[in-house]
């Protein structure tokens, strides 16, 4: 970990440079998306008024960076304690979503979760229809063209004192829903982690990610000098464009700002500091589930948000997420000093 100072045009703010993984340039291409799944629901044990069940999911389509499984109970069952998933119920409708460590499902990959529930002592029918990320789980696959809409920023201005998140898509990069979806998951996991560590957390907007059509082609962001070292060119060009388009400051007393761009070149990275996180293509790819294990990208975002909230790098690999221990996420934490630094820092009032 090390720090690099940026030029005065960025109000001389200091970004803590942290390459969260090896730099991999990936051009996002329009393609056909394959989706499919198989679900096995098993009642493990049953007793008067209660039962336990296990739900196994196999992804038969393209890799997933996060999943949500839905089904309906037909006999008045209710879900209680669950493990390895976040499970909620409204009437007969049940929704189960991945937790931080089991969101990535490769093609052919499987995961499972379980829960305890209640039943009416008369009928405990096994659900017969499931959907995974909106796709019916029939044991087969379907292939549909990936839409390539022209995204626009959400109407209106997000509430102040929130974390505002942008994905900048260069003009020659095809739209891919995995990117806003994946970046959303990474920020939501960081939100959960802050709550766990601090007892308070930041607020995200809806939608979490504002998709921004870049003014230039990918190569322009990668090869136009900005902020000195080539390491910074892609992310500084992105940051300049976001500031211009949205009237953002650096720092900005209205929002913590997170920007990711699908560009990086041969020396790109990113960092965080003074109310900003700016990340290049390999971080965006990682969030989308196509560049390494997800804990790397979860830990990296926690690390850079720590900088955005005012923390420096740790001086050694000390088990805190502000050191190289971020690679062990979720087995890294904030130290008491770091917690005080965030809570009493320039953006501590953003937490609730």
From TrEMBL:
Signal peptide: 1-25
PROSITE patterns, alphabetized: CBM2 (PS51173), CBM2_A (PS00561), PROKAR_LIPOPROTEIN (PS51257)
Residues annotated as domain CBM2: 30-140
Gene3D superfamilies, per the entry: 2.60.40.290
One Pfam family matching this protein: CBM_2
Biased segments, Pro residues type: 146-157
Region (Disordered): 137-161
KW Protease (keyword) present: no
Domain of life: Bacteria
Record's protein name: CBM2 domain-containing protein
Protein source organism: Actinoallomurus vinaceus
């Amino acid at each position: 970990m090390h720090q690099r100072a940026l030029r005065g045009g960025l109000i001389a703010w200091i970004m803590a440079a942290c390459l969260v993984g090896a730099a991999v340039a990936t051009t996002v291409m329009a393609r056909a998306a394959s989706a499919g799944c198989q679900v096995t629901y098993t009642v493990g044990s049953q007793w008067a008024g209660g039962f336990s069940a296990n739900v196994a999911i196999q992804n038969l389509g393209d890799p997933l960076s996060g999943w949500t499984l839905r089904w309906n109970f037909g006999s008045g069952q209710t879900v209680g304690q669950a493990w390895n998933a976040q499970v909620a119920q409204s009437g007969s409708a049940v929704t189960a979503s991945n937790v931080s460590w089991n969101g990535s499902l490769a093609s052919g990959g499987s995961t499972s979760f379980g829960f305890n529930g209640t039943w009416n002592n008369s009928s405990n029918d096994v659900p017969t229809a499931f959907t995974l990320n909106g796709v019916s789980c029939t044991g087969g696959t379907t292939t549909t063209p990936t839409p390539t809409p022209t995204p626009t920023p959400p109407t209106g201005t997000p509430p102040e004192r929130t974390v505002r998140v942008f994905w900048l898509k260069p003009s020659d990069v095809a739209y891919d829903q995995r990117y806003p979806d994946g970046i959303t998951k990474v920020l939501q996991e960081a939100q959960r982690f802050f709550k766990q560590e601090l007892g308070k957390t930041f607020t995200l907007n809806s939608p979490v990610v504002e998709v921004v059509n870049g003014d230039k082609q990918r190569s322009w962001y990668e090869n136009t000098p900005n902020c000195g070292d080539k390491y910074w060119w892609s992310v500084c060009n992105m940051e300049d464009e976001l500031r211009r388009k949205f009237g953002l400051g650096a720092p900005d007393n209205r929002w913590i700002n997170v920007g990711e761009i699908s560009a990086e070149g041969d020396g790109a990275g990113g960092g965080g500091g003074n109310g900003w996180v700016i990340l290049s293509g390999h971080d965006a790819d990682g969030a989308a589930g196509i560049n390494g294990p997800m804990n790397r990208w979860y830990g990296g975002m926690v690390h850079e948000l720590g900088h955005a909230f005012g923390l420096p790098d740790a001086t050694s690999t000390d088990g805190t997420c502000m050191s190289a221990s971020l690679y062990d996420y979720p087995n890294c934490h904030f130290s008491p000093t770091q917690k005080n630094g965030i809570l009493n820092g320039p953006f501590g009032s953003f937490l609730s």
